[in-house]
């Protein structure tokens, strides 16, 4: 395993539609997933998609995490998964607003509407099928990462750029009790 370089907005690979993984048990895919998990943890981040490491493949890694507040804690090894050829299904038309950032768009944060509840399915690198239902923050991570496979960044999903700002300033404003949203 090794740390991978994360590409940033402006690199065309982030705007391509990634191709499906043909052999989900290919050990090179498993090795790539392991390196992506290591890179995500080091960043630190809660999810990473293969195009973000310059590979236009339908592969994501993410933390299994109850809510945003747990993101500051170090992840247990069994609470991180790779999902190959993931597919999502919106189960609830209700949209929730929440803050997002992206390792390919460093330092910035913005409020993004996302489906509150989704079904997901895909393959694990061991060849097993995985499917489930995700809500809230986990559903948000999945939508953000699968968007990367279709060439979208979270900025494309914002209703407007009124909330867009640098994470440090947004955090400082929150601690002061003020809110830049309008
Ligand atoms: Ni991202």
Describe this structure in words.
The chain starts with 26 loop residues before the first helix and ends in a 6-residue tail after the last helix. It is 24% helix and 30% strand. The chain has four helices and eight strands; from the N terminus they run αβββββββααβα. Strand 6 (117-123) and strand 7 form a beta hairpin. The chain has helices spanning 27-42, 136-149, 154-157, 167-176; strands at residues 47-49, 59-63, 80-90, 95-102, 105-115, 117-123, 129-135, 165-166. It is α+β, with helices and mostly antiparallel strands. It has one domain (12-176): Peptide deformylase (Peptide Deformylase, Alpha-Beta Complex). Bound molecules: nickel (II) ion (NI). Nickel (II) ion binds next to helix 2. Nickel (II) ion (NI) is lined by residues 102-104, 144, 148.
